[in-house]
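TA notes. Do not distribute before section.
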Amino acid sequence: MARIHMLLQGKGGVGKSFIASVLAQYKLAKGQKPLCIDTDPVNATFFGFKALKVQRLQLMDGEEINPRNFDALVELVAPSKHDVIIDNGASSFVQLAHYLVTNEVPQLLQGMGHELVIHSVITGGQAFQDTLHNLRQIVPQFPAEAVFIVWLNPYWGPIESKGQGFEQMEAYAAMKDRLSALVTIPTLKAETYGRDLTELLQSRQTFDEALAKDTLTIMTRQRLKIVRDQLYAQLDNAAVL
């Protein structure tokens, strides 16, 4: 059985492509050969990671899902024996979520022996309410065949409301039965870890590519290794992965 990992979040710039790249790298580290697809119609950041051999596929035709293009996506996914990682753009969030549900795609994939795993992101700071709203919008729409993993990204500030962390919020209590795992991106000091990771993403390099570069300082590589290992350790504990 292959798991079809799909990034869905209607807020742009919250780390979806980074998460897609981390998932792909994690799968490679486990000896898999993930099929990586970027369907973002505006910012194909995931496609820029050449080491991950990401394919680009346009799903949108104007403001609507192009059914024939979506058919092509299913044809790519159907025969896969390894996990598939699909990064989607914020601008296609509403249309794609609706298309997946109304066309019973989670059930279709299950019938093929696959499982749909939806990854969404919640951030701190100004985007917190938007990202939380988008998550609350899609979770009840999807049938039980779809599994959800939530990534908490504190880059723009703590993920809290009225002094409560995410797991203490009413929103979490309402959704927790549908959430298979929470993954927290480490809080990074801007002048060291944060800068190192930002430069890594801007160069569209994987952790392993960066760790192999002797042009980077020893401590830069050490910090990147620590971040990678912290993320991988959490993914190890996510049974659905």
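Switch to the second chain here.
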Amino acid sequence: MIELHQVSKTFGDGVPIVALADVDLRVDAGEFVVVLGPSGSGKTTLLNMIGALDNPTGGSIVVDGFDISKASRRELFEFRRSTVSFIFQSFNIFPGLTAAENVQFGADAAEREDVDPDVVLDSVGLGDRVDQFPHELSGGEQQRVAIARALATGNPVILADEPTGELDFATGVQILQLLQKQATDGKAVLVVTHNREISRIADRVVELSSGSIVSDGPPAEGKAHLEDLHW
């Protein structure tokens, strides 16, 4: 579903800042992959490359059979609409729209007419909050609205940037459970985080350091269950 070959990204016109250096990565449909690394290791840059929010300096990126590194702006717009769904740490939901309207926006953007926002919100435990505005919701509830909006697109790739970073433990576990289910349902789910505990429930753990992958494999102590997590 996701294939990166020798992907690099540098910033700056003078002395270049290397954000990614010759990264090779593959993520299959149905995989739940966690990318670990400290701040500045290239995690978010990697996610932005895969989601076509930024262009690589070198290498190729193929997502769902489409080479985004050679695509036009119009093709990239269509790609983002139909293939990837982002879940941001800062939620990025619209403050002037209700929970249901935010989810409906996701469905409309993907041109899906078969989506009932109330049903999707109920699936993330917000069936009684459909008419609430973001300022009337807790942080965990806002993040679940963001996830519901991502689910409403039906897109095969879900990219999550520190999805539990602003949440308490109990709510964070709920979010991870929802993301795990998406992988079980056949989507490719890629989560970037600095929280090593989250990596224990991944199918694979990719570690980044200074823009390079330093390890890629199953959790070191074997895959854990959600109820075994603590942070």
